[in-house]
Amino acid sequence: MSTYFPSGKGLAEDRKWFVVDAKGKTVGRLATEVARILTGKNNPAWTPFMDMGDHCVVINARHAVFTGSKTDQKLYRHHTLYPGGLKEKSVKEMLEQKPERIIELAIKGMLPKTKLGKAMAKKLKVYADAEHRHTAQKPEAIEI
């Protein structure tokens, strides 16, 4: 009796598409479930060194919520690579300017920091509102 071992053939063709509505969902809890879909850990044939995950479209990112006082205290930082170039934005500013970036950063932070993680992150699509342009792929709605 042999153990089933997946080959890398046909992985891209067999990927499913899922839609997740972020309206009223907590950012961190949403991000963990979407990261599981992208990595493929919800797949029984999951293999650590292969990209077994599916595509995931997150809609209504503008309506995701933070618990506690994170909306006032949490800061997103990046550096411009110039002296004194550390820039900070609060959650309120990010929600006004780039609400989809909040979800992207939360999910990408939960993926591996390797080539495999970058390949998984390419399967993530985040939209601030309910409209998305992936209807041709016939995505399946998931409740998280």
Written overview of the protein:
The protein has a domain at 17-66 and 104-142: Ribosomal Protein L13p, Chain: A. The protein is 28% helix and 18% strand. It has helices at 27-39, 70-73, 91-97, 99-108, 115-121; strands at 17-21, 55-59, 75-79, 86-90, 124-126, 140-142. The strands form 2 sheets. A 4-stranded parallel β-sheet has the order 5-2-1-6, with helices on one face. Strands 3-4 form a two-stranded antiparallel sheet. Helix 1 (27-39) packs across helix 4 and helix 3 packs across helix 4.
Quick structural summary:
The chain has 144 residues and is of the alpha/beta class.
Cα(first) to Cα(last) distance is: 37 Å
Radius of gyration: 17 Å
- The assigned structural class equals alpha/beta
Beta-strand content? 15-25%
| Mean of pLDDT | 94
How do the strands and helices of this protein lay out in sequence?
Layout: E1 17-21, H1 27-39, E2 55-59, H2 70-73, E3 75-79, E4 86-90, H3 91-97, H4 99-108, H5 115-121, E5 124-126, E6 140-142
Based on the model shown, name its key terms:
144 residues, four-stranded parallel beta sheet, alpha/beta
